[in-house]
Write a structure and sequence with these properties.
482 residues; alpha/beta; 9-stranded mixed beta sheet; 6-stranded mixed beta sheet
Length: 482
């Protein structure tokens, strides 16, 4: 039976902004900063749409072999080893990848010359004709986006394709010309991507906003402002999805111009609110006056309360899109997690080894610690993002048997652990220069019944290109243990 709030599939047209006028890129002189995957996607799109493209990367040619090979079929001009100001001469638009800091002098000069500065996300939002769901947050967005994608697949019509991308997977700009108005697009959006957008998805979710990327944004106000861009340009018929239990997310309800559905642990006192909440270990949905049980906690395969929030968020987003409770249940059940997020690797020496490389902030590591009751050996490190380690250090002293610290941030983390060390401290602290060395130290420490958890709390950029490569290396080295 169709749920009372469930829209006809044709009503999904309200999710997309059909009034967007696609830009004519033909003949435009454009400059792309950064040859990473987002930059390559933008270059390919622009070149195939008739733009004259210059691609500039700070790395030398010998470090760009893969990018040069991937783009060798395109008539583009390369500039490597830096970004000379002369590149701005004659170009009409400057594009940047997410890794390019908007504060660099080159971009300050571009702004002084009144040159537009855009990214591939903004171009995709301008170009795509399909309905859009956008999801952002400091933590949980990859899991939630994946869950929404699974739910959408269960709800999709036979002739409808569901595309999941943005901050995960390959940039969807490479596929935008084949995405039909009847399809559905679900985007994970980072603060870096949202900094420059002037279009908002008509279903926009902000899962939470906690200190993150302060090495880039400098202040929490600037970080929150970037996240809030996902809502700023919504229209009266659109939907916002906010977290009642996260103050920074909930405060954004002042920006809501259309409909609001929220999620949180307890039911809101206002029974007229559209909401998802927990009741008697069951995820409940209240929508258009109807109360519907979606699934029980026992039906959720993901570990930890933080993942129940992700499930509730996914159900709230799905409800805004008009998907049925049956589709929500089918999409969530049997899903054990995304790669590199509390991913079980193997059992060795009686200990269970987990890969949580996606935890690139101390708060994410905190959530991971709360997912286990077993004795813990935690691998922490990478590159610091100028975030506080105090609360994590306190929790490690409560929950862990040992901490193995590696990478650039190892001394910083050691200092936090020593400063927060209680009188009866029992946590053994070991340090390693590299992740493989840290794995060897953890293997020597572990015993039957332990959980060995890579949950770094820092980025991977001191030694790896991204958290995925770090997680892959971790899993490979763990599998080699004998």
């Amino acid at each position: 039976m169709r749920d009372a709030w469930h829209f006809n599939r044709n009503d999904l047209i309200f999710l997309g902004d059909k009034n967007l006028v696609k830009k004519n890129w033909n003949g435009k002189n454009i400059l792309m900063l950064g040859a990473a995957r987002q930059g390559q996607a933008l270059v390919r799109f622009m070149a195939t749409h008739g733009a004259h493209v210059t691609l500039s990367d700070s790395k030398p040619f010998d470090q760009l072999t893969d990018a040069r090979q991937d783009l060798s079929d395109l008539p583009i001009r390369w500039e490597v080893g830096g970004h000379p100001l002369s590149l701005l001469d004659g170009n009409e638009i400057v594009f940047v990848t997410g890794g390019v800091d908007l504060r660099i002098p080159f971009l300050k000069e571009a702004r002084r010359r009144n040159l537009p500065i855009l990214n591939d996300t903004e171009v995709f939002l301008q170009e795509v004709s399909a309905p859009l769901i956008g999801i952002t947050g400091s933590s949980g967005k990859t899991t939630t986006t994946t869950l929404v994608g699974r739910i959408a697949e269960k709800a999709a019509a036979d002739n409808q394709t569901v595309y999941v991308g943005g901050n995960i997977g390959n940039p969807l700009l490479t596929l935008v010309d084949q995405i039909l108005p009847t399809d559905l697009v679900i985007l994970e959006l980072s603060s870096f991507q949202l900094e420059l957008v002037t279009h908002s998805p008509a279903i926009a979710a902000v899962l939470n906003i906690t200190p993150n990327h302060l090495d880039r944004h400098e202040t929490m106000d600037a970080y929150i402002a970037a996240k809030a861009n996902i809502l700023r340009n919504q229209k009266t018929g659109d939907w916002a999805v906010l977290n009642r239990n996260d103050q920074n997310s909930w405060d954004l309800r002042r920006l809501v111009q259309g409909n609001l559905i929220s999620f949180g642990w307890d039911a809101p006192t206002d029974e007229a609110q559209h909401a998802v909440f927990m009741q008697d270990d069951t995820v409940m949905l209240r929508m258009k006056g109807q109360l519907v049980p979606v699934l029980t906690r026992a039906q959720v395969a993901l570990r930890g309360d933080h993942n129940l929030y992700n499930v509730m968020a996914a159900c709230a987003i799905a409800a805004a899109a008009g998907f049925s409770a049956d589709a929500m249940r089918a999409g969530v059940e049997h899903f054990s997690g995304v790669p590199h997020r509390l991913q079980f690797v193997r059992e060795y020496h009686g200990a269970r080894w987990y890969n949580d490389s996606i935890a690139t902030a101390p708060e994410r590591t905190l959530a991971a610690l709360h997912s286990f009751s077993e004795p813990l050996i935690v691998l922490l490190g990478g590159r610091d993002k100028k975030l506080p380690w105090v609360e994590l250090a306190k929790e490690i002293h409560k929950r862990a048997r040992a901490a193995v610290l590696f990478g650039e941030a190892r001394d910083l983390i050691e200092t936090a652990l020593l400063q927060e060390q209680p009188e009866n401290a029992t946590v053994q602290i070991e340090k390693a220069e590299s992740l493989p060395e840290a794995i060897q130290k953890a293997a020597a420490l572990c015993r039957s019944g332990d959980v060995v958890l890579l949950s770094p709390g820092g980025t991977s950029y001191d030694a790896f290109k991204d958290f995925e490569e770090r997680g892959k290396v971790y899993s490979e080295w763990v599998m080699r243990l004998n």
